[in-house]
UniProtKB/TrEMBL annotation:
Required cofactor names: Mn(2+); Mg(2+)
Name listed for the protein in its UniProt record: NUDIX hydrolase
PROSITE patterns per UniProt: NUDIX
Domain Nudix hydrolase: 25-227
């Protein structure tokens, strides 16, 4: 894993003056790095969260969010590696593994408009515009993702996702997430739009250019995002990234104050 640079510090006011005691229990979450092959090489889809949000406001992130308890619905038609396979990769039980994969697909659709589903295990939706209204209903929790898939005769394409990492928010922060990171290629014909109230900017960048923008102060990155971009920068193409072997261990960084800034250090 890349070593975090000393200049990767948290913005002023990001950490509350009084730390929670006892620490908050992390909420299960999923995030997805959407990638494509562009002219300059592998590109990743990035969102900048609206400034002032309770968690990670102003930060550049990948699409994702918390698990909904309904994401574990066993009625979902599923194609790809079974929940037991994902449970082994993320060191969790099968029910949570099922919910994490469903949350990854659901949150990606809600925040970017990309839908990793098809009418069967060999197809994938090429035009998501007919599902625009349903997308907002999902955001508003009007119905579950299982109900959405069933209503439109769709199969969740778990085979389009690859497991990447598992990061847990430091114990010192009041809002904590146990986040599993996934990698997915944007399906042919689909275009991420970033039409979500949680973001004020959506863009494609190579990992190297996103890291350069952080270095110049034009982007704010949390440590997991910085590490992931650094890892993705090693892949020349989507195929290379998707085939990269990954050994996933839960990473729980520690928050420290160096006398001037709060920064994150990785601990064993």
């Amino acid at each position: 894993m890349p070593e975090l640079p000393e200049e990767l510090v948290l913005p002023e006011g990001f950490v509350p003056a009084e730390l929670p005691d006892p620490p908050a229990v992390p909420r299960d979450a999923a995030t997805v790095m959407l990638v494509r092959d562009g002219a300059p090489g592998l590109e990743v889809f990035l969102l900048r969260r609206v400034l002032g949000m309770a968690f990670a406001g102003g930060m550049t992130v990948f699409p994702g969010g918390g698990v909904d308890k309904r994401d574990a619905d066993t009625s979902i038609r599923w194609h790809g590696e079974p929940p037991a396979w994902w449970a082994d990769r993320f060191s969790c039980d099968e029910a949570l593994a099922r919910a994490l994969v469903c949350a990854a697909v659901r949150e990606t659709f809600e925040e970017s408009g990309v839908l990793l589903a098809g009418t069967d295990g060999t197809s994938v939706v090429s035009d998501t515009r007919p599902f625009h209204a349903a997308r907002q209903d999902l955001v508003d929790r009007e119905y579950s993702f299982a109900e959405f898939l069933a209503e439109h005769g769709l199969v969740l394409r778990a085979d389009l996702l690859r497991p990447w990492a598992n990061w847990v928010t430091p114990a010192a922060e009041p809002r904590r997430y146990d986040t599993r990171f996934f990698l997915a290629a944007v399906p042919p014909g689909q275009t991420p739009d970033g039409a979500t109230t949680e973001a004020d900017e959506a863009t494609w960048q190579t990992p190297a250019s996103a890291l350069a923008a952080w270095k110049s102060g034009d982007r704010l990155l949390l440590p997991p995002t910085w590490v992931t971009l650094t890892e993705l920068d090693e892949a020349a193409t989507v195929a290379t990234a998707m085939a990269a072997p990954r050994t996933i261990a839960k990473i729980t960084p520690k928050l420290v104050h160096d006398g001037t800034h709060h920064r994150v250090v990785l601990t064993d």
